[in-house]
Input
Amino acid sequence: MTVDKLCGLLLKPAEGIDREMMSDIFYIELPDSEDELDEPDDDDGLGPEPPPRPPKDPGKQVPFVLEQEAGGFRLKKNPAVGGFTGNIKVATAYMVIKGSPLTSYSKYDFDLAKSPITVSTSGIVNLEYKGNKMSFYVNPESDFSIEVSGFDTERDLYVKANHYDSEI
Output
């Protein structure tokens, strides 16, 4: 047998469906009549649909709103939450392709305490900087806000903010 004939046999399309081909491996019962095969299948083949997610717990709301801006961000009081007293810690870094942005931060990227980064605040006390991190205390009566700008607009900024209640 020549190579051309062998390739022709291997590339030849199958004639019909061989229902017995994998029956010893896959134990799926197929319908006996052809009428049942022509029925439309509503299944998309992705398996059963997962149950809908429950709505978020409205009892635990974040006391601040983080707004991304060109070259920076703004953190301000969430008007839906009243009477928050505690500390807020913010960590910033430039996004990276692989790994965590915060662990990939370099002191050569930026320092929050140095130029060109500028920080303007309202209604916060005890503001402390260290490299790419800052922390501050929020009074319950204040409509606090902190605006940080001066980051490289050609890079994506990663901002992580956490709050810690002092009423524990």
User: Anything to note?
Assistant: The longest helix spans residues 3-11.
